[in-house]
Amino acid sequence: MIPFDDIAFLRPPYLYGTTNYGGTFGYGTVYRVSPPAQKGGQWTETVPYSFDPGTNMGASAEGPVTFDGSGNMYGTTAFGGDLNCQGGFGCGVVFELSPQQGGTWTYANLYSFQGGNDGLVPTGFIVVDSQGSLYSTTQFGGGQSDGGTAFKLSPPQQEGETWTETTLHSFKAPASGGANGGLIRGKWGDLYGVTYLGGTGCPTQGCGTVFELQP
Description:
Elements: E1 9-11, E2 14-19, E3 29-34, E4 44-50, E5 58-61, E6 66-67, E7 73-80, E8 93-99, E9 105-112, E10 120-122, E11 127-128, E12 134-140, E13 149-154, E14 164-170, E15 184-185, E16 191-195, E17 209-213
Antiparallel strand pairs: 1-2, 2-3, 3-4, 5-7, 6-7, 7-8, 8-9, 10-12, 11-12, 12-13, 13-14, 15-16, 16-17
């Protein structure tokens, strides 16, 4: 497996993260690293989930995972989902892994991107608000400029309903395109993130920006 992130998300006493490749089907994993029982012992790695795009799920996780207050795990994959999108590769998904008795996890595909105004290739960190809504970014899509999006996923209000995606902002490449780090929330609900294009200081496309989105 090839870990995509330099660090994994810490949920004591374990470390969690994702890989871009490897696993049972070769399309990446969510992994857990458990500390040794005694000082100086070996850490132990297990794989709670291997991505399988053949089941119309996600493929190639390229971001860290985060947890809500109930212990559910959330993340994104760059590809997979609706395999009619992006020439059969899929435009990426937001997924949930829910802990079960016995140490297993149940996978749910919360949203499959379509590559249009909603964006494609989500690779950023997800933040969860007090209402259970999820926020993050996509690197591409979002309209004619293809500069990526900041989005919100709202949980279903009734049993049987699906999660609802809302595009909060479409970035305009190259002026401010390529949001690729996810989002964090400030004290008053403002959202902050980074882009790898735009701004000043570099010829043609800029050196990137730090941005704020205000509700």
